[in-house]
Every structure is written in C-alpha cells, then in structure tokens.
Design a protein that fits this description.
The protein has 130 residues and is α+β, with helices and mostly antiparallel strands. The protein is built from four helices and six strands, in the order αβααββββαβ. It folds into two domains: 73 residues, Orthogonal Bundle (Arc Repressor Mutant, subunit A); 55 residues, Ferric-uptake regulator, C-terminal dimerisarion domain (Dna Ligase, domain 1, 2-Layer Sandwich), CATH 3.30.1490.190. 35% of the residues lie in helices and 18% in strands.
C-alpha cells in the first residue's frame, strides 16, 4: 500500500500542472528541491509508473522522460516533443490515424499510441536558427 505523503502529493501536483509535457527526473527534482528530496522523486516516479499514472519514454539523447497519464487527457494520443524548446503537443487525430494505418499496412506493426513520443522541431522553432 502506498501512502499519499506530502512529497508524493507535490510530485503529482507538479505533473497535473504539466499534462502535455514530458519531463525528466532532474527537472522535477530541481523544481521541487525545497520540498522533495531527490531520492523521493526517483522512488515516487518508480511507484507512479508501476501504478500506471505516468509513462516513461526515452528522449533522443536517451534521457528518461515522464508524462502524467492519470488524468485521461492524453489517453491514446501520440505526442511530439520539440528538441529545441521542449514543448510537447498531441499529434492531430487525423495525422495519428494515417500514421498508425501506414505502419500497420507497410510493416504489420501495431502502434501503442499512449506511449509514443516523437522528437523533432515544432512549427514555432522551425524558422529559428539554433
């Protein structure tokens, strides 16, 4: 049985304010440094993942990123994350459907949309020079 400690509540609150974001453990530990220990961040991330409240994905540089899914807002959505600004958005339902169908038709691959995170450059950053 997991208890709703103040540290756990702080971590869940952090995620609830960032429903469409994928964040690293370091981001969370830094943001909550005054109220949550680093070890508590890692311990709670493992528990929240086990409970199915967050999903863990690997970023392009192999950093583990976490996204809160317990709200249901992102259920069944493909996410895309900008490697320049860090913004994460949902792929449109139409584009996701075409992508899912193309993968199935071409390779027989069934996509797990809820855990899919694509990396690239968003439309806001595509015109900027890095």
């Amino acid at each position: 049985m997991n208890y709703a400690t103040e540290q756990r509540k702080s971590i869940i609150s952090y995620f609830e304010k960032r429903l469409d974001e994928s964040v690293s453990a370091a981001d969370i530990a830094s943001a909550l440094a005054f109220s949550v220990s680093k070890s508590a961040v890692y311990r709670n991330l493992a528990l929240l993942e086990k409970e199915g409240k967050i999903v863990r994905v690997q970023s392009g540089d192999r950093t583990a990123l976490y996204r809160y899914v317990a709200s249901g807002k992102c259920e069944g959505k493909i996410h895309m994350s900008c490697v320049r600004c860090g913004k994460t958005e949902h792929v449109s339902a139409e584009a996701a459907s075409r992508f899912e169908k193309a993968l199935k038709d071409a390779d027989g691959f069934s996509l797990n949309k809820g855990e899919c995170l694509l990396f690239g450059v968003c439309k806001d950053c595509s015109g900027r020079v890095k």
